[in-house]
Amino acid sequence: MSVLQVHGFSHVPLKIHTLVFDKTHPKPLLLLGFQFIQQALNIEELARLAAVAKDHGIPLASHDDDSIGKLDLMRNWNVAISEFPVELGVAIEAKQRGLAVVMGAPNVVLGKSHSNNVSAFEAISYGAVDILCSDYYPPSMLQAVFFSTEAAYLWSMP
Question: Which residues are within 8 A (CB) of 29 and not within 5 positions of it... i.e. 6 or more apart?
Answer without folding.
Answer: 19, 20, 21, 22, 58, 59
